[in-house]
Specification:
Chain A: Keywords: FAD, Flavoprotein, Oxidoreductase. The complex is a heterodimer of chains A (384) and B (89). With 384 residues, chain A is of the alpha+beta class. Chain A is built from twelve helices and ten strands. Chain B is mainly α and 89 residues long. Chain B has a single domain (3-79), classed as ACP-like (Non-ribosomal Peptide Synthetase Peptidyl Carrier Protein, Chain A), CATH 1.10.1200. Classes of the chains: A alpha+beta (384), B mainly alpha (89). Chain A binds chain B through residues 100-101, 134-135, 175-180, 226-227, 229-230, 232-234, 236-237, 309, 311, 313-314, 371-372, 375-376, 378, and chain B through 14, 31-32, 34, 36-43, 45-46, 49-50, 55, 57-59, 61-63, 66-67.
C-alpha cells in the first residue's frame, strides 16, 4: 500500500476546510438540479482545479498520486457527489489531454483559464450511435484547407450545458480503425456549436449533463490534440485519469459512509442491543470495509503503475469495476442499515445510492471493462 | 527468431488465426484491412511492452508505428538498444 508522507498529509489538510463548504446545501441542490449557484465560485476559490497542472499555467504541479490523495479527501469531506463529479470532469476532460498532447500555443491560451476555473470544460465522446463502441460514432471531421469541419451530435456531455471549452472526439478516417479517431478542442462560441439544456437524471443531479450538436463547425487544424488519428491514444490517456480521479473521490465517499454506518450501528438500539451487534448488520458493514479498502488499493496501485510506465490496461479496468460496484453496494447497504431513515431524502443516503449507480456506466461500463480484461488475457469474442 | 518473424507470428496467432504466418506480407495494411480494432491495439501495445521490454508512450501510438508488420518492426527496432544488448524473452 502506498505510504503517504507528512507533506501529503499537510497538503490534504490545506484543502480540508473547503470540502464541507463545497457540499453545503447539497440536499437542496440535488432537489433543484444543475450546478448550484455560487458553487463554482467556491470551487474556483478552493484551488482544487489547479492540482495536476504545471505552475507555468497557474497549476500546483502535483503528480497523479498526490492529486488523487487530495481528491480522496474531497470525496470524504464533500457530500455533493454531483459537484465532485463536475470537478473531476473539469480537471481531466480538457486540461489533462491539453497538458499532455496540446501545442505550446494551445496550452498557453487555455490552461490558465482551466486551472482557474474561469474556463469550464467538458469532453464529448459518446454520440447517439457510438456509446460503448466509440469507433461506431457518427460524428465526423473532414479537412478543409487549414481547418476541419465537424458534423454530428453528442449526448451525455457532463458539464456540457455550461462548458466554455469542449474536447470533441470525431472520426477523421473510418477505414483506419483505432487510428480513425481525432480529438479537437472546440470553443463554445464557435459557429455551429449548440449546447443543449441540462437533462434530468437519476443521480449526480448537481453535475449538469447535456447534448451537444455540431453543424458544419469549423475548427482550426491547430486545435487538434496530438495529431489527426491520435484520438484513441488521447482518449485512453484521459480515461485512465478520469477513472483514477473520479473513483478515488468515491473511495473517499465510501469511507465517510462506512464511518457513518459504524456510528449509527453502535448508537441505534433494537431488541435492547445496538443493531451493530447483530451479525447480519455487522456483515454488511464488514463488506463495506472490504469494498473501500480493495478499491483504494487497486486505484493507487494502478496509478503508481501508470506513472512508472507499466502496462496498466488491465489494472485500470479491474480498479474501475471494483470501485464502481463496491460503491453501489456500499450505498445500498447504508440505506438498509439506516432502515426507514435511510430511505428518507433528508439522510442523504438515497441520493448517494442514485449517484453511485452512474459509476457502473460512465468511463466505460462494467461490461466493457470486463471485455477489456478478457481481451487482455487473450480471450476473443466471436462477434465484437 | 528475428523480430519480424516474432511480430508476424503474434499478429497471425492473435488476429488472423486462419492465415499461415509466412503468408502475412510485412507491408499488409492491418488497419485498412480491419485486422486490428481498438481492443486488439491495446493488447498489441501491452505485448510489445512485455515481450520486448520497450516503453510504449501514448505519443508513440500513431498509425505509422502500427500499420504493418514492417512498421511495428521498425518501431521496435528504433526503441530497442543495440542488438548485442538485447535480451528477448
Ligand atoms: C452520469 C453520466 C455521465 C456521463 N458523462 C459523459 C461525458 O462527460 N462525456 C461523454 O462522452 N459521455 C458521458 N457519458 C456517457 C457514457 O460514457 C456512456 O453512457 C457509456 O459509455 C455507455 O454508452 P451507451 O450509453 O451508449 O450505452 P450502450 O453502449 O448502448 O450500452 C448499453 C448496454 O449494453 C452493454 N454493451 C454494449 N456493448 C456490449 C458488448 N460488446 N458486450 C456486452 N455488453 C455490451 C453496455 O455495457 C450497457 O450495459 C456519461 C454517462 C453517465 C451516466
Amino acid at each position: 500500500m502506498y505510504e503517504w508522507s507528512e507533506e501529503h498529509r499537510e497538503l490534504r489538510a490545506e484543502f480540508a476546510h473547503w470540502y464541507e463548504t463545497l457540499g453545503e446545501g447539497h440536499l437542496e441542490a440535488d432537489r433543484d438540479s444543475g450546478l448550484p449557484p455560487r458553487a463554482w465560485e467556491r470551487v474556483r476559490a478552493s484551488g482544487l482545479l489547479r492540482l495536476p497542472f504545471h505552475a507555468e499555467w497557474g497549476g500546483r504541479g502535483l503528480d497523479l498520486l498526490s492529486t488523487m490523495y487530495v481528491l480522496e479527501g474531497l470525496g470524504e469531506g464533500c457530500r455533493d457527489g454531483g459537484l465532485c463529479f463536475s470537478i473531476c470532469t473539469q480537471i481531466v476532460s480538457a486540461g489533462i489531454p491539453l497538458q499532455r498532447f496540446g501545442s505550446a500555443e494551445l496550452k498557453a491560451r487555455h490552461l490558465p483559464g482551466i486551472c482557474d476555473g474561469g474556463t469550464i470544460t467538458a469532453h464529448a465522446i459518446t454520440d447517439p450511435n457510438g456509446g460503448s463502441d466509440v469507433l461506431g460514432m457518427g460524428m465526423t471531421a473532414k479537412p478543409d484547407g487549414d481547418d476541419w469541419i465537424l458534423d454530428g451530435d453528442k449526448v451525455f456531455v457532463t458539464n456540457g450545458p455550461v462548458a466554455d471549452l469542449i474536447v470533441v472526439y470525431a472520426l477523421t478516417d473510418a477505414s483506419l480503425g483505432p487510428f480513425g479517431l481525432t480529438a479537437f478542442l472546440v470553443e463554445r462560441g464557435t459557429e455551429g456549436v449548440l449546447a443543449g439544456a441540462d437533462v434530468p437524471k437519476m443521480g449526480l443531479r448537481t453535475s449538469p449533463l447535456g447534448e451537444l450538436s455540431l453543424r458544419g463547425c469549423r475548427v482550426p487544424a491547430a486545435n487538434v490534440l496530438g495529431r489527426p488519428g491520435m484520438g484513441f491514444a488521447v482518449l485512453d490517456h484521459v480515461m485512465r485519469w478520469e477513472i483514477l480521479c473520479s473513483f478515488i473521490v468515491q473511495v473517499g465517499a465510501m469511507q465517510h459512509r462506512l464511518d457513518r454506518c459504524v456510528e449509527h450501528a453502535t448508537r441505534r438500539r433494537q431488541f435492547g442491543r445496538p443493531i451493530g451487534s447483530f451479525q447480519m448488520i455487522a456483515d454488511q458493514i464488514v463488506d463495506m470495509k472490504i469494498g473501500v479498502e480493495t478499491s483504494r488499493r487497486w486505484l493507487y496501485d494502478a496509478a503508481e503503475g501508470f506513472v512508472r510506465g507499466r502496462d496498466v490496461t488491465t489494472d485500470i479496468a479491474i480498479a474501475k469495476v471494483l470501485a464502481s460496484e463496491a460503491n453501489v453496494k456500499s450505498a445500498l447497504s447504508a440505506v438498509q442499515i439506516f432502515g426507514g431513515r435511510g430511505y428518507l431524502t433528508e439522510t442523504g443516503l438515497e441520493k448517494d445510492l442514485r449517484d453511485a449507480v452512474g459509476g457502473t456506466i460512465y468511463s466505460g461500463t462494467s461490461e466493457m471493462q470486463r471485455i477489456r480484461i478478457a481481451r487482455m488475457l487473450g480471450l476473443k469474442e466471436s462477434q465484437t | 527468431m528475428d523480430i519480424t518473424q516474432v511480430i508476424r507470428e503474434f499478429v497471425v496467432t492473435e488476429y488472423l488465426p486462419d492465415t499461415p504466418p509466412d503468408e502475412l506480407e510485412v507491408d499488409y495494411d492491418l488497419f485498412r484491412n480491419g485486422v486490428i480494432n481498438s481492443l486488439d491495439l491495446l493488447r498489441l501495445i501491452s505485448w510489445l511492452k512485455d515481450h520486448f521490454g520497450i516503453p510504449v508512450d501514448e505519443l508513440d501510438i500513431v498509425p505509422e508505428n502500427f500499420r504493418t508488420v514492417a512498421a511495428i518492426r521498425d518501431f521496435v527496432d528504433s526503441a530497442l538498444p543495440a542488438p548485442a544488448e538485447r535480451t528477448l524473452k
